[in-house]
Write a structure and sequence with these properties.
CATH superfamily of the largest domain in chain A: Alkaline Phosphatase, subunit A
CATH topology of the largest domain in chain A: Alkaline Phosphatase, subunit A
Number of domains of chain A: 3
Largest sheet of chain B: 10 strands, antiparallel
Helix content of chain B: 40-55%
Distance between the termini of chain B: 60 Å
Oligomer: heterodimer
Number of strands of chain A: 18
Number of helices of chain B: 33
CATH class of the largest domain in chain A: Alpha Beta
Radius of gyration of chain A: 24 Å
Structural class of chain B: alpha+beta
Strand content of chain B: 5-15%
Structural class of chain A: alpha/beta
Helix content of chain A: 25-40%
Strand order of the largest sheet of chain A: 7-6-8-1-10-13-5-14
CATH architecture of the largest domain in chain A: 3-Layer(aba) Sandwich
């Protein structure tokens, strides 16, 4: 490539990469040209221009990725860290005392209904060779301790669900910003030609913040999370509306002929050409998605492993989500997110009261399926290239709200990752002796995002999209890759 | 270096990395910010548009309009020639979609094709610009800029009550071609115009509706950090405003000086002040103008009758007052009853007894003394002008006129605080004076207590109560809370909203205390306390609203740790030995003052007030003269009342408060306020002059500066947006950003030509501009990408060597479906159409019921815009998420769109409606003729022979696949569905 072209790419924002491709067209495919440019060319405006035309085409990463896909287990409503992955004996010692005396000055909480210091109703034990402390809230997941990289020093900026959900997903507390799944797909494209690049499996719970939690914001709509229902019709309009499939085929043939003629008449305008390709992809999705959701080919052992046969309905729902997540990853989908089942109405993990029942039931729904997912991925050799992330939008207070609940706490909480290039069997960071605030190796949301992108082979500072006069990033103007957790 | 500062520095370094390298390295903020240097980089952008010379071109036969010459000149310079003209049918379909967003009907096509006289195209354009559907099309464009929605998103997706009036305002404004400068003035200061624009043929206030845009954003229902939350809302308003009207991203400067543009952090905060000094209301836009006039008539009427009435009443009391001393003596010493009326004496006895013990009774100081009871009362020796203690911060003192700007919504508090001695007239003709104000106060005028909101009007969400206060609200200036305890000196009942940090979506656990009811009783004014201590250090203004039909007087709003003792009503101690004579003398004086209409002091006014309220102490029956005057007055008042508009709908609107200047906030966060940044346009604008008024928000002054023809960005931004909608690409392609990070104009001289013409020749007329553009030769070109070298030289078509092929927007696709099938319902305006819910539209706040699949055939613009439940089909086709200004929509190409075309129920439903229409209208036609009819309806053109045979073949195939009992319409439905799936339906060539 000659120098003039390189200059024009980097210095003149008027000329997009796509136009360049057109200029240099004969004989060069997109990937060939990318190879010539090296990874730098795929950054910034180059990717952005490609995104408009061929949104799902695979794009080179910035450097060698550790993970090809992400499975994000979203624990909406906020799991209590001191009842799960952050063991704090002090809470037993000071149980029932005034936290303002025991802990000191407290931050404002959502409900300002401060009860006493509350010890965990669950027992903590060390697990695996690593000896990670995990409570018996998650007995099956605890058995996978040596796969887990628990981060105990996570923080958020928002103590209120909606903003915190947006923040966890998009790096901004505001509505309308692209979700991380959209960013990942924008940056890397998809490895599957017949499925969307970012799939959200819905177990029943829609987070506060609504469908925009998985939005593409200012990124092209192609990157928004496609919501697949774990039960019932999986995706809007994916089931052919004609009873007789031949009718649709006949129509498609006619549409194809008319479109072809229209394309010729237009002088082969790009937009019409890609619309034709897109129509064909949609037709294939009508087959690919039902095939994806059909678990009849799974072995009985697998089904039992996940818990598809257990009595508790919500465990079965989440088991189905986890198996489908694995099947999506097998099919090359980049980003899969799972929402939790409707265990406790709209309560989610949001245990402002009745902690034991709320957390107990939620854990019962997800514990076995998640453990099974880790086992199954490992057995199939997929865990190494699949990053599993378990996180809620914030944590909960170590003192009670009222008598038997816990309020929101964004100052320190636990999340974990597994597979995909992270070190198993480790804990990173610490909260204070109460599990209240992050004290050692405090992490911010943008650090988590930077690390996820890094594992996917992307430099979070280079994955940008220009919108309204600014280059936006998932990590805004912050974020550090947490090197200590990399395998 | 502290953590935050370190982050800021890092952030700046990172941002610099994220932006592609340019010839100049980005300046570090603050120190190196050089305004003039930055303006110089885009010098022409910061100068007012100048009249341009129309370029000379080689091919002088091609151009039809001056604009064509600007286009042709660049093409010729590049060695290109423009594409040939598109055929008539293509042009017609194109111009229909551009102007009205609807495809031409068969009749419209035929009328145009058969119009062979010169000027046929002009006639089409005139017809389309005059169509009510023009306003709908361009209103929808504008709604993208205003992040239009009818709910507040977040967790509960609470409704924005009555938001749709803003949408209908837009439709009317575009249809009536309101000049753009007026349109802008209305958006920023429609509530402050000396002469608001009225809806034609009515006295409905249109201008105020425009200000509703400010409240179309998201709101959080229970933010823990209420101030941080406010920063986000204000940021959104500044962002929307500056992108829309200025084509600048000023909100970039929230955290630091703009990286490239001549916009400093101070400029961002200087813009914030305009919104911080304004607040939310539900405006009675239908009744406010009429009732303003009625209030003036009412005031004049009262002014005319009050002197007559006080004279009559005083005269009627005179004789009775002359006997007061006798009655007081008799009431005190039973032996002196002779010659006195026994009933009246009974009244006096009661009164004297009460006065002796009740410290607030106007005769108390006399009677307590006469009984030898010399204990001092709290009010004793207090005068109305006593000073406040230093720890009492007076926020509003309505006992004094003009102590603070008078901020009221509607007429219910009159045109200013009442003064001591002002007369209140009631509706009882025998006793028409109900009150002599013993003190100054902002008083609710119960004449207006009958105001109502119209049936169907929505109440706003949560505890705010703005709808209930609408048109009957009194507002204090905005202050910053210190100790956080507010004390209100009131008489009567009120519902109060303390607007802390302009929080308005008040629901959920945290901020309930902001909305409270208070009762000051109906005796002397009383202090009540509104405890806002958690909000110490936050900004607040207080809104007093009515509580049912109850009286209300607000005297003072004070912040202090403890409830103040101050009272405006004192009573002086008499010093005569003969108490009875002294009472009589005082009452005689008060009665004289009443007659004269001027009181010596508060004591005297209190006495007069007591006097008029107790006629039975002075006379036995009605006074004929008083009754006669009062009846005359009441008849005139009833006449006014009959012309008052008691019912009105309400709409979201700005309400003007007092001047607030924002501090520069480090990193955009409120924890660390820096220096004050006085309200102003960014200083980069030559027209910017600081706006220093403290009595208003300053929005009106700001708006004047914006529409000044020397403003370099307002007209350019506007004409560029129109160009973008007409030609599919802006002259500045980044239509919301003309700054350094936007793209440069492809035709800068053309942009200036249009901007100058727009302001100086066309009087800011958008219709005239659109008319000019669609009648150019440029617009008439074919979109065919050809075998010409143009595709190589100008691959992005930035020189406009041909017209672009464009995909229709989601709303237009749906509208076209309805229009083509014949289901289209042309009704313009009205409440939103409930969104059709599918199993994929789920979440909290889900509407209770689902709307019809075809939305009653109404245009897409009328579909309810609930933030968390946006209409799926339109979203699939890139309708933007309403979070901030989106001047240029994404045009994506995703499988969900194709899946919708294949399987969405609306496509299938409308295919059937269309097929039924075909068989109804073409019952005898053969297949070929029917296919031609379908092509013409859907694509505005006739099919080629190939297309006809493809359809006829397919028809045979489809018929064969039908079950045995299928009707003819079933087969045609399948064919129609396929035609709606073909690209020509959703693309415009």
């Amino acid at each position: 490539m000659n120098r003039a072209h390189q200059n024009s790419l980097f210095l003149d924002p008027r000329i997009s990469r796509r136009e360049m491709l057109r200029r240099a067209s004969n004989g060069f495919g997109a990937l060939a040209l990318t190879a010539l440019f090296g990874s730098a060319a795929s950054s910034a405006l180059g990717v952005q221009a490609d995104a408009a035309k061929r949104p799902m085409a695979p794009k080179p990463s910035h450097f060698r990725p550790r993970a090809k896909s992400v499975i994000f287990l979203f624990m909406e409503g906020a799991v209590s860290q001191v009842d799960s992955f952050d063991y704090k004996p002090m809470l037993e010692k000071y149980h029932g005392q005034d936290p303002r005396k025991a802990i000191g000055k407290l931050e404002k909480t959502q409900f300002e209904s401060i009860g006493t210091v509350l010890k965990s109703p669950w027992k903590f034990k060390q697990h695996g060779q690593s000896g990670l402390w995990i409570s018996d809230l998650f007995p099956r997941v605890a058995e996978r301790a040596d796969d887990l990289c628990v981060i105990r020093s996570m923080t958020s900026l928002f103590p209120e669900h909606t903003s915190a959900n947006y923040f966890l997903h998009s790096g901004s507390g505001l509505q309308g910003r692209p979700s991380m799944g959209a960013w990942v797909t924008y940056g890397l494209g998809s490895l599957n030609r017949d499925l969307p690049g970012y799939v959200v499996l819905n177990g029943g719970q829609i987070p506060s913040g609504g469908l925009d939690t998985w939005g593409s914001g200012f990124l092209p709509a192609a990157y928004q999370g496609s919501l697949l229902h774990a039960k019932g019709t999986p995706l809007a309009n994916v089931v052919p509306s004609e009873k007789n499939t031949k009718v649709q085929e006949a129509k498609r043939r006619l549409v194809g002929r008319l479109n072809q003629q229209s394309l010729e008449d237009s002088g082969k305008v790009d937009a019409l050409e890609s619309a034709i390709a897109n129509y064909e992809l949609a037709a294939r999705m009508q087959v690919a998605i039902p095939d994806l959701m059909d678990l009849t080919g799974e072995s009985e052992t697998t089904k039992q492993l996940y818990g598809l046969d257990v009595a508790y309905e919500h465990t079965r729902t989440y088991a189905r989500e986890c198996i489908i997540a694995r099947r999506l990853v097998e099919r090359g989908v980049r980003f899969v997110e799972l929402t939790i089942p409707m265990v406790d109405g709209y309560q989610r993990w949001d245990a402002h009261g009745g902690l034991v029942k709320n957390h107990g039931d939620n854990a019962r729904a997800i514990d076995q399926p998640i453990a099974a997912l880790l086992i199954d991925l490992k057995q199939r050799g997929l865990l190494d290239e699949t990053l599993v992330v378990w996180a809620g939008e914030f944590g909960r207070t170590p003192f009670a709200q009222g008598s038997d609940g816990r309020d929101h706490n964004e100052f320190g909480f636990s999340v974990w990752m597994a597979g995909g290039g992270v070190r198993g069997g480790m804990a990173y960071g610490e909260t204070d002796e109460w599990g209240y605030k992050s004290t050692v190796d405090k992490l911010e949301m943008h650090d988590l995002h930077a690390t996820i992108l890094h594992l996917m082979g992307m430099d979070h500072e280079k994955l940008t999209y220009r919108f309204g006069g600014r280059d936006f990033r998932l990590t805004d103007v912050s974020g550090h890759v947490v090197r200590d957790v990399l395998a | 270096m502290n953590h935050r500062l370190l982050k800021a520095v890092l952030a700046i370094a990172l941002l610099a990395v994220a932006i592609p390298a340019r010839s100049e390295s980005p300046a570090a903020p603050d120190k190196k910010f050089n305004l003039e240097e930055r303006k110089q980089k885009q010098a022409s952008l910061w100068e007012a548009p100048r009249k341009q010379k129309v370029p000379t071109v080689k091919d002088t036969r091609w151009p039809l309009a001056p604009e064509d010459r600007f286009i042709l000149q660049k093409l010729e310079q590049a060695g290109l020639s423009p594409a040939p003209r598109a055929d008539d049918r293509t042009w017609l379909r194109r111009v229909h979609f551009v102007i009205t967003g609807l495809p031409p009907s068969l009749e419209e096509i035929r009328a145009y094709l058969s119009d062979t006289k010169p000027g046929a195209r002009e006639r089409v354009v005139d017809r389309l610009l005059a169509s009510p559907h023009f306003g709908e099309r361009w209103a929808r464009h504008w709604m993208d800029l205003m992040r239009y929605a009818e709910s507040r998103g977040h967790e509960g997706d609470y409704i924005i009550a009555n938001a749709w009036h803003y949408r209908d305002y837009l439709i009317r404004a575009f249809n009536e071609d309101v000049p753009y400068d007026q349109f802008l003035m209305e958006h920023l200061a429609g509530d402050l115009l000396p002469k608001p624009r009225l809806r034609s043929g009515t006295d409905i206030n249109e201008s105020v509706l425009a200000t509703g845009w400010a409240y179309l954003g998201e709101e959080n229902h229970s933010p823990v950090d209420i101030r941080l939350d406010e920063c986000e809302r204000i940021d959104n308003k500044v962002d929307v405003f500056s992108k829309t009207f200025l084509g600048l991203t000023i909100s970039c400067a929230r955290c630091h000086d703009h990286k490239f543009d001549p916009i400093r952090a101070q400029d961002y905060y200087a813009m914030s002040g305009f919104f911080l000094g304004s607040s939310f209301r539900q405006a009675r836009f239908e009744s406010m103008e009429n009732n303003r006039t009625m209030a003036k008539e009412l005031a004049a009427l009262r002014e005319r009758f009050t002197p007559k009435l006080v004279k009559a009443v005083a005269a009627a009391n005179e004789r009775g007052i002359g006997r007061v001393a006798d009655y007081v003596r008799a009431a005190q010493s039973p032996e002196r009853r002779a010659s006195l009326d026994s009933k009246r004496l009974e009244h006096w006895s009661t009164e004297v007894r009460v006065a002796a013990t009740n410290a607030t009774h106007p005769l108390h100081s006399f009677m307590s003394r006469s009984r030898g009871n010399e204990t001092k009362t709290s009010s004793e020796s207090k005068e109305s002008l006593l000073t406040w203690t230093p720890s009492e911060k007076v926020i509003a003192d309505f006992t004094q006129p003009d102590r603070q700007p008078w901020k009221v919504d509607g007429e219910a508090f009159g045109s200013g605080p009442l003064a001591l001695g002002d007369i209140i007239l009631g509706t009882n003709p025998t006793n028409p004076i109900t009150r002599v104000m013993p003190h100054g106060a902002a008083r609710r005028d119960l004449f207006w207590a009958g105001l109502k909101t119209a049936a169907g009007n929505e109440n706003d969400s949560g505890r705010l109560g703005a709808t209930a206060r609408s048109g009957q609200m009194l507002r204090t200036p905005t202050v910053t809370l210190g100790v956080g305890k507010l004390h209100y000196l009131i008489r009567g009942k009120t519902r109060v909203y303390a607007s802390v940090d302009s929080h308005l979506m008040n629901e959920g656990p945290l901020h309930g205390r902001l909305a409270q009811g208070f009762d000051g009783g109906l005796g002397a004014p009383r202090w009540v306390t509104h405890d806002l201590t958690p909000y110490s250090g936050h900004r607040v203004h207080v809104e007093f609203g009515p509580d049912g039909g109850n009286e209300l007087e607000v005297l003072a709003v004070v912040e202090a740790a403890d409830q103040p003792k101050w009272l405006p009503v004192g009573s002086r101690r008499g010093n005569e030995a003969d108490v009875a004579r002294e009472v009589q003398r005082a009452l005689t004086a008060a009665n004289k003052s009443l007659s004269r209409g001027a009181f010596k002091d508060a004591t005297e006014a209190s006495l007069a007030n007591w006097l008029v309220q107790n006629p039975h102490l002075f006379r036995d029956g009605p006074d004929a003269k008083t009754v006669r005057i009062a009846q005359e007055f009441l008849a005139a008042q009833s006449n006014i009342a009959s012309r008052v508009r008691w019912e009105s709908r309400t709409a979201i609107a700005l309400f003007d408060g007092t001047g607030v200047d924002e501090n520069v906030l480090l990193r955009g966060k409120p924890f660390k306020p820096g220096e004050l940044s006085p309200r102003s346009l960014p200083v980069a604008f030559a027209v910017a002059k600081p706006i220093t008024t403290s009595a208003t928000s300053g929005r009106y002054e700001l708006a004047r500066q914006l529409v000044d023809p020397s403003n370099p960005l307002v007209a350019r931004t506007a004409v560029n947006r129109v160009w973008y909608h007409v030609f599919g690409r802006g002259i500045v392609p980044t239509v919301d950003n003309f700054g350094a990070l936007g793209e440069r104009p492809t035709h800068p001289e053309l942009l200036d030509h249009l901007a100058w013409q727009f302001m100086h020749e066309d009087d800011w007329s958008l219709k005239r501009l659109i008319q000019r553009l669609v009648l150019t030769q440029t617009f008439a070109m074919s979109s065919r990408a050809g075998d010409t070298p143009a595709e190589e030289v100008d691959p992005a078509n930035s020189l406009l060597h041909r017209m672009p092929v464009r995909r229709l927007e989601g709303e237009v696709i749906r509208d076209a479906l309805l229009k083509v099938s014949g289901r289209f319902n042309p009704q313009v305006g009205g409440p939103p159409i409930t969104v059709h819910l599918t199993e994929f539209l789920v979440g909290r706040g889900r509407p209770d019921k689902s709307g019809l699949l075809d939305g009653d055939g109404r245009r897409s613009i009328y579909t309810a815009m609930r933030r968390n439940f946006l209409p799926t089909l339109m979203q699939t086709f890139d309708m933007p998420t309403p979070f901030s200004t989106v001047g240029k929509r994404n045009v994506t190409n995703v499988p969900a769109q194709s899946l919708a075309r294949m399987n969405d129920a609306l496509f299938h439903q409308q295919a059937r409606v269309w097929a039924e229409r075909l068989l109804r209208e073409q019952p005898k036609a053969d297949a070929t003729a029917r296919v031609r009819w379908l092509f013409e309806s859907a694509y505005g053109r006739l099919p080629s022979d190939n297309e006809v045979s493809a359809c006829v073949e397919s028809l045979g195939e489809l018929r064969a696949l039908q079950p045995g009992d299928a009707a003819e319409v079933d087969t045609w439905t399948d064919l129609c569905h396929a035609l709606l799936n073909a690209n020509d339906f959703i693309y415009v060539k």
